[in-house]
């Protein structure tokens, strides 16, 4: 648990009103649980009565929690509640009938697609969690997220008064002496590549294994891969990992499973480099832990990973195993570069000093602590505007689908153009207004870095998907077979249209089932006839004035 600096425990108590927290499950050592317990100590130190309400909890948390079902009858109109959301809870009806003020703390939800093919129940739970995120919106007066990436999704979902909270890390918890037996085993002259975390599909441990295999075979034959964290080989993904390990034939691959604090210290103490290929992180504590322990960090720059790293380490724009392996080799062969990285990483950790974090948390929570906020009235200004969704427009404005989207925007009035931001900045929150081909477009952060090759499939975007789901406008997906269209169509199919290139492969069955006759086939390489055909087809919408 994160320790509270003494100087912050009694800082400026604004009142004695109760500020409670609500979490579906309280687990010891879990990232969400750590933040919940940290906030409780801060709130109590500021003079507030503060309890944690949960539906489930670990035995080790028994004395810290009250049953969630008790909150509606224990709360009153003067009560205030911080709701933590990261996974399906099925508790929204209970929260809706509870009296008092409420606010949301969002830890992010992994996109369901990242579990498809391996964990069907988890994928469905992730989808349900996003439905709950929308259902919670009218219940709260403000919201926070632990990264700008996550805050962007809340803004897109229409949440009021969205801001960021700094993530509190208990650095002293890492100061554990290494297990001598494991340290001696790993400290044998091999270059150790380390990953720490649960072996689940979204973490892409399979890609870590692919990168390691390439690195071992092409650059560093005396190397070892160490994976520390929960791994169940009886699950489809666990079986897949062990099968992939045998197929690739890499040597010295060790899946340690769950480890003790001392064993984890041994892993970091003997690591040459830390590698993460995770596809989605709302915040990545192991990245910072590796930085704290002086291990160079290389991570695929998906979701909130670049924010977590804060300009230190290397956030790659590619997940291609050969390219990442080449990067690891360059780092190993340049000790000066490695030292420069470690120095920058230590500076990043220093910026998350406990005193500074506690002060920033206090400042962020202050508006909720002192009293109710006015909730903005949602605007219907955009509800009647046709929305053109072209994910690659900003990155590849000369691609056939982009040129078609731009020409169509010139002929449709009014309309909006939505796209993915090819160079999102971790210090800015989307949507960001850009001009492409003379047209104003709104650009949202992608869940993963965009490929430099226009022919490659573009990534999805949690925030853009949420903006489309909460919009009331007619939508035109261009093209209709994008990953963004596939993720969004199940939720918006009644007001969605799609465009496909007649020369492209047949659209996925899901697209056909959701769009039917509203899937329009045109020749992307003949823009003028295509635009005329689309204008004619869109006239029945009645939501636009085509010229």
From TrEMBL:
Organism (species): Cystobacter ferrugineus
Tree of life domain: Bacteria
Signal peptide: none
Gene Ontology biological-process entries: lipopolysaccharide biosynthetic process
Name of the protein described by the UniProt record: Glycosyl transferase family 1
Transmembrane domains' residue ranges: none
Single GO MF descriptor: glycosyltransferase activity
Record key words, sorted: Transferase
Domain Glycosyl transferase family: residue ranges: 193-346
Cited InterPro entries: Glyco_trans_1
